[in-house]
Write a structure and sequence with these properties.
9 helices, 11 strands, four-stranded parallel β-sheet, about 280 residues, 2 domains, globular
């Protein structure tokens, strides 16, 4: 399920089933927006901690509870300092929404276990956990949480990791992640126009060009048309064996395959009728 970030009133969001928006105290159209888009799920992002210290804003969010199609997103630091949770703030937040989650990206098992204790409805997964989604999804389902990811960012805990070994999802590979990413897929883009281009690429299921054009931080030339169709299938459950003593070199081999295909000017044409 693809999510679009609504930051421009001229954006066409009719095709999206999920919409992400920032909470702006001065915006008096929020209630109307949520009600008008009852067929979509709205992710309401509140980044200012001081909003939860103002009764006016807490009451406004509480009034929104009559609508069931939205989830509150807040940074973890809003209610926690390290692993110490401010129960008063946390209870105030839980009281003003039907569903809540954290904007933080979770990239290791220890932090995931901490997040589970807070019982959010969804969690953002990144880094090495993006290669363990078969296991992550089981743990999250048991905890009553759904999994969300950012597809178009090359993600790793160590910047020195080769780009092809970082966690990201090609438009062609969304189908391999659908069983595990049951919350939604999001995108980071510099402009609304770029977001619509990227959203369309993921919706149709292919990108005719270099992946560095749509994936932030992928600092290498990697033409999506020349990668094997099994690229995503082999990465989704690989558990990052290459970093734990295994001789696995799948990602690098596929990158070399793409380089060879480019030299021979050969492309792998995706099935444009593929349903995502």
């Amino acid at each position: 399920m693809l999510c679009i970030y609504y930051d421009n009133p001229n954006m066409d969001i009719s095709k999206a089933r999920q919409v992400k928006i920032d909470y702006r105290p001065q915006d008096d159209t929020l209630e109307q927006f949520i009600e008008t888009n009852a067929d979509k799920h709205i992710y309401l992002v509140v980044n200012r901690e001081d909003l939860f210290q103002t009764k006016e804003h807490l009451n406004r969010l509480h009034e929104l509870c009559k609508y069931k199609n939205w989830t509150l997103q807040i940074p973890l630091k809003t209610i926690a300092n390290g692993d110490e949770v401010d129960e008063i703030k946390f209870n105030a937040i839980k009281d003003c929404c039907n569903k809540y989650m954290f904007t933080d990206l979770i990239g290791n098992w220890e932090i995931l276990q901490f997040i589970i204790r807070l019982q959010p409805s969804e969690v953002y997964i990144t880094n090495i956990l993006g290669f363990c989604l078969d296991q992550v999804s089981i743990v999250c389902k048991r905890a009553g949480m759904k999994v969300r990811v950012y597809a178009n960012i090359a993600q790793s805990a160590w910047n020195g990791l080769p780009a092809v070994k970082k966690f990201f999802i090609r438009p062609e590979d969304v189908r391999y992640y659908e069983n595990y990413v049951d919350g939604g897929i999001e995108f980071k883009t510099p402009t609304s126009v770029a977001q619509e281009v990227i959203y369309d690429a993921y919706e149709r299921g292919y990108w005719f060009g270099n992946l560095s054009e749509i994936i932030i931080g992928l600092d290498t030339s990697l033409d999506s048309r020349r990668l094997p169709t099994t690229f995503g299938l082999l990465r989704v459950e690989c558990h990052k064996r290459c970093l734990s003593g295994s001789s696995c070199s799948t990602c690098r081999t596929m990158e070399q395959f793409a380089e060879l295909m480019e030299k021979t000017d050969t492309q792998i044409i995706p099935d444009s009728k593929q349903k995502l």
